[in-house]
Amino acid sequence: MNITWTRRRTALSRFWRDYRRQRAGLYGAAILIAAVALALLTPLVTDPAGMDVTRATGAKMAAPSLDFPLGTDESGRSVLLMTLWGSRVSLLIGFMSALLSMTIGTVTGIAAGHFRGWTSAVLLRITDWFLVLPSLVLALVLAAILGGGTSTIILAIGVTSWASTARLIRAQTLSVEARPYIERSRALGAGHWHIMTRHVLPNVAPLVLANTTLQVASAIVAESTLAFLGADSGKVSWGGMLRGSYDWGAATSGAWWYVLAPGLCIVAVVMAFTLCGRALEAVLNPRLRGVSR
Amino acid sequence: MTERRENAGERGSLLEARDLHVEFASRGRRARAVDGVNLAVGEGEIVALVGESGCGKTTLARTLLGLERPTSGSVLYGGAPLSYSSRALKAYRREVQLVLQDPTGSLNPRHTVYEAVAEGPRIHGMSDERDRVVSALARTGLRPPERFLHSYPHELSGGQRQRVVIAGALALDPRVLVADEPVASLDASVRGEILALLLRLRDELGLSALVVTHDLGLAWNIADRVAVMYLGRIVESGPVEQVLRSPTHPYTQALLSVLPESPSPVVLSGEPPDPTRIPGGCRFHPRCQVLAAGAAARAGVEGRCRSQPLAILPVSPFSADSHAACHYAGARLE
Amino acid sequence: MSLLRLRDVAVTYRVASGEVPAVRGVSLDLAAGQALGVAGESGSGKSTLAMALLRLLPRDARVTGEILLDGEDVLTMNWGRLRAVRWASASVVFQGAQHALNPVRRIEQQIAEPLLVHGMATPAEARRKVGELLEQVGLPAWRARSYPHELSGGQRQRVMIAMALACSPRLIIADEPTTALDVMIQAQVLALIRSLIAEHDISLIMISHDLSVLASMCDRLAVMYAGRVVESGPSGEVFRDARHPYSLALSAAFPTVGDPASRRAPKGLGGDPPDPMHLPTGCSFHPRCPVALPECAFQEVELWAAGESRTAACVHVRPESVQPAGPGEGLEKQSVPVARPAEESQ
Ligand SMILES: Nc1ncnc2c1ncn2[C@@H]1O[C@H](COP(=O)(O)OP(=O)(O)OP(=O)(O)O)[C@@H](O)[C@H]1O
Ligand SMILES: Nc1ncnc2c1ncn2[C@@H]1O[C@H](COP(=O)(O)OP(=O)(O)OP(=O)(O)O)[C@@H](O)[C@H]1O
Ligand code: SF4
Ligand code: SF4
Ligand SMILES: [Mg+2]
Ligand SMILES: [Mg+2]
């Protein structure tokens, strides 16, 4: 088993070598690591008391100063503090809903590609249905029905955004299923479960990984949009901050810091995820094609 | 299993196709890829199935494995018709194994040699997985097995890959091996080794084999009996020495005549045959050189060649007789 | 004068992990109107050699030596001259050519392209020429309007041959033109090539690993192993009476149907193909050679004369005068049965 371990290590180092060549991907990864590190460190270095509206210490809508490097909001809370705490919520929702969406999408996609006949037809119909449905509206409705809370938002985004993934995974599954080793496996006596888990899943995994990364980006955008439209988790998130700034007319009243802080954060993190996703695609996909020929 | 063996009798057939038909829908038409085939492989017998590209060899092999359902007719194993329930198929595939046409495609590039060979034993929940893998690899000549266990397919040569595929089939200790073009994609120098391996397995383990190929030299090298297929039908079958030394069907004669060494090649012209448009009468008549040369007319069978279909050839394993589906050959015998 | 003359041609590919010496010093001659067969197992450098003849190799390949086509060195030619030679003097039917056709363009366009590009014909003339070419390779002229996927493998291979004939070359290099085709179609394509080279007095270099096919098509044969020619001579003689153990294994691999000696006795060659980056010392065949002598592991071999207009690179054919004294004494006695391993093993 020692040898498998060595092989994994070399595979990993080869992956890293290829990834390193992707300049943009490296920048993306750096931004992400910084963002995640900040989000994780926030509870250790800051006091959540500052987030309480009733205990806010600053003036309302104060411009950036030494005390409040990014100014304050309508209740006198530090925008910097809010941005830091908001990143935890935004990232959490982004990651979790992307995970949910990828799980649903992968399972549906593999099943729709593997099975023939009505199973595949039904799954495809459902996928198409979710694909054409305006997912934001659906998510809004879902969030409204289920009531507030972080998990509701995760659920709402995850359940409405898996369809395109399912399509992608199904296409890849079909191409894997056409390979002779699937027929060999079947001739050895393999059942559906064996083929799907031992052959198809490992082959679509790189695609899933690259896609999840991209999906996190769109989930963060979706979260912000939902929050902006009023469906939030009840906790401060970047989307929620934007909504607040809009409600209090921050942009028109010259309180640019209130808009800019969460706005730039969203742009930066979304861009970082996209860069990483694209880099992963570039690194993993040629190899996927190369070895599966 | 022992019951079946007794039922089938000492020299009975182990794997048999009876009046087998397989059709595909192909661009709105029916392609009769296998169009009435009787074929039998006896215990410890090696049968070669030869024929040109597209005549339905692979389809027949896949149908024998239950990977394709026959449109009509049946596959018999140990005298009993094949059941298509998934449990029965799984049990069946423990005893009858398939080696596919293309060794490179047959191996998952992400699985090591060990995983590839262990796949069968794992599926069937066999306990002594590692021992089986090691011994199967050693039997196929990948020695020492430990050297190959953790290799990936792309690190192996073509011949080694083919041996891994065969080892994967052997790991289940099958009684019948159906090998589809086992050496077509291989180098000349590796070819003999793989064939020798098949012969040795038959001698040592009593393995039965159906070897699908378009290479008559291969049939001559290892088979006991040979069946020649043309456009979905067996047109001649019998012991290798008889069929390949003194073929009676014009198609077999043509196949043998185009071997590089032969003095007077009969190169069949015309397009490769199309299973969606099988000619009436004798299915070979549009390309038949005996008919074209007028020999059939002289024997008085020309009309029958063009209009009277031929019966499906009977087969039995170990049979010492050869049969040909040809009016002309029939008339000359009388 | 010979049409093609190779002197000590070597090709090395530069790859990430080092250098791959794919061809290591090959000298050959081809007279006008002659057919030369090049045999050898997969990876022995046959295609590389063929591509080197017209400088068709990728940039990372370094070619050294001398390749004289009609007395002109291909390796030092300028680009303009080289392009002229490629179309007018020699053309290649590539390995796996059936997949080399552009799937979205009609056969007609693909055959006419070189004629038009080189200004050798007006579009109307080119169209007529395409019809003629197709008839020459046994396809009806209306097939010109077909797309590649509408043709069978054998028909596609004929189209490739028609393309090679388009500019009336004097030399055709056919790289495995029939591998992957079934026996009947293979026979059709071979008969076609045979009649074309006879009618138009074209020289042929044909590459294959099937010695029996080459023996039936070519005047002379060269057998390659690990980037070198290990045996050459008149094709019939090399095929029936090989002197080098590797050629012997190669010719035994394809049995003669009806020959009792090969019945139930397939012959192969054990061991693994050589890794060009880590070639064995001495005779590169020694790890797989059934008749290797101890000295083979370090003694360099070269092509020695092995009969009239025949050569082989094996110590068993080495002329007496070059043999080292001492351990070579028993060799003469030994070499009679030993040079024919196939017989010995029976
Ligand atoms: N799934 C399918 N759908 C439609 N037609 C098919 C299918 N599979 C095979 N055929 C057709 O059936 C015929 C027989 O095919 P098959 O693969 O059995 O030939 P083969 O004898 O194995 O040929 P080769 O020597 O080229 O492998 C061919 O004409 C092929 O086009
Ligand atoms: N572009 C390349 N870069 C690096 N190595 C190469 C390249 N092309 C070929 N080689 C190597 O050079 C050697 C000779 O290859 P070549 O294609 O000439 O073999 P061949 O005799 O034609 O084999 P085959 O019968 O399989 O076609 C092989 O070891 C191959 O791996
Ligand atoms: S039956 Fe007639 S057409 Fe058919 S193979 Fe015999 S002679 Fe030829
Ligand atoms: S030189 Fe030696 S190793 Fe090489 S082929 Fe001759 S006998 Fe074999
Ligand atoms: Mg086939
Ligand atoms: Mg080649």
From TrEMBL, chain A:
Q: Name one GO biological process term.
A: transmembrane transport
Q: Which Gene3D superfamilies does the entry link to?
A: MetI-like (1.10.3720.10)
Q: Name one GO cellular component term.
A: plasma membrane
* Residue span(s) of domain ABC transmembrane type-1: 87-277
- Transmembrane region(s): 24-45, 91-115, 136-159, 255-280
Query: What Pfam families does this protein map onto?
Result: BPD_transp_1, OppC_N
Which subcellular locations apply to this protein? Answer: Cell membrane
Q: Which UniProt keywords apply?
A: Cell membrane, Membrane, Transmembrane, Transmembrane helix, Transport
Q: Give the CDD domains listed for this entry.
A: TM_PBP2
Q: Which InterPro entries match?
A: BP-dependent_transpt_permease, MetI-like, MetI-like_sf, OppC_N
Q: How does it sit in the membrane?
A: Multi-pass membrane protein
Family affiliation: Belongs to the binding-protein-dependent transport system permease family.
Protein name from the UniProt record = Peptide/nickel transport system permease protein
Q: Which organism is it from?
A: Streptosporangium subroseum
UniProtKB/TrEMBL annotation, chain B:
InterPro entries, alphabetized: AAA+_ATPase, ABC_transp_ATP-bind, ABC_transporter-like_ATP-bd, ABC_transporter-like_CS, Oligopep_ABC_C, P-loop_NTPase
What Gene Ontology biological process does one annotation of this record name? Answer: peptide transport
UniProt xrefs under PROSITE patterns? ABC_TRANSPORTER_1 (PS00211), ABC_TRANSPORTER_2 (PS50893)
- Which top-level group of life is the source organism from? Bacteria
What are the UniProt keywords, alphabetically?
ATP-binding, Nucleotide-binding, Transport
Q: Which residues form the ABC transporter domain?
A: 15-256
A molecular-function term among this protein's GO annotations: ATP binding
**Family, similarity comment:** Belongs to the ABC transporter superfamily.
Its recorded name reads: Peptide/nickel transport system ATP-binding protein
UniProtKB/TrEMBL annotation, chain C:
Pfam family of the protein (one) = ABC_tran
Alphabetical GO CC annotations of the entry are: plasma membrane
- Locate the ABC transporter domain: which residues? 4-251
Where in or outside the cell?
Answer: Cell membrane
| Family matches, as InterPro entries | AAA+_ATPase, ABC_Ni/Peptide_Import, ABC_transporter-like_ATP-bd, ABC_transporter-like_CS, Oligopep_ABC_C, P-loop_NTPase
Q: Which GO BP terms apply?
A: peptide transport
Give the record's membrane topology: Peripheral membrane protein
| Region Disordered, residue ranges | 320-346
Q: Which Gene3D superfamilies match?
A: P-loop containing nucleotide triphosphate hydrolases
UniProt KW keywords: ATP-binding, Cell membrane, Membrane, Nucleotide-binding, Transport
**GO molecular function (one):** ATP hydrolysis activity
Please name the SUPFAM superfamilies in this protein's record: P-loop containing nucleoside triphosphate hydrolases
Q: Which family does it belong to?
A: Belongs to the ABC transporter superfamily.
Q: NCBIfam families under this entry?
A: oligo_HPY
The entry's protein name is Peptide/nickel transport system ATP-binding protein
Source organism: Streptosporangium subroseum
